Protein: Undecaprenyl-diphosphatase
Organism: Paenibacillus algicola
Amino acid sequence: MDVLLWLKYLFLGMVQGITEPIPVSSSGHLVIVQELMGLKQEGLFFEVLTNTASLFAIAVIYRQDIARLISSTVKFILTREKEYRSDFMFSLYVVIGTIPAALAAVLLKSQIEQFFSSIHTVSISLLVTGVALWLIRNLRGRKRDGDLSVRDALLVGLAQAVALIPGISRSGATVISSMAVGMKQETALRFSFMLYIPISVGGIILSVSDLTQNPERASMAVPYVLAFAASLVTTYFSMKWLMNVMAKGNLKYFAYYCFAVGILLLFIL
């Protein structure tokens, strides 16, 4: 039975890792898979654990961008040299774009937790995500990193706040809204995952009590470690795959997937 439980958590970690970067909702898929496997997670401990692994993987992929943005921001503040202004403004827009989701998470944390038990909510949210992906499938924006505005950041930030609902993909919501305001695909993807980093760190901080007070930490150490490792590895490769998909402009296939899974859930579960 222990081995079976370990395999279930290993699979859950893989589901989180694969679906976190791509626009199909990792939280929604965790709800679905846990329902199918008969697992019930109390609170946000497991999602925060596997999300932390995803955060590490994405930070590794964007490590050069992160280092450059931090360095340029500090240099611009100290010197006001124009060569650092673009990166400074991009960093500022990331901060602005983080505010809506941060406020929603703080004010609506308990309500958000309740959504995790609703398969019906997930199915409807997946269909909404699918429609949005379909609508922007052919968009090819012109805005690069240095062309963004406060309005762009706020609109994308509001989309990220809506994505706190399970089934609404965070990456999907932010990539879709970024492309909708005119960003190039590469910029949209970078901005989306720069937004993911602070909101993910904030989620970890907000869930410290869940992490420290979880009574199953000792007895579930092995399953949790397996899930963390699986999420870390699969997030890395899933993110690389998404970059390739975005470069080829094939987001419509994610829309098909969201439609299929959303309709299936409505009629079967």
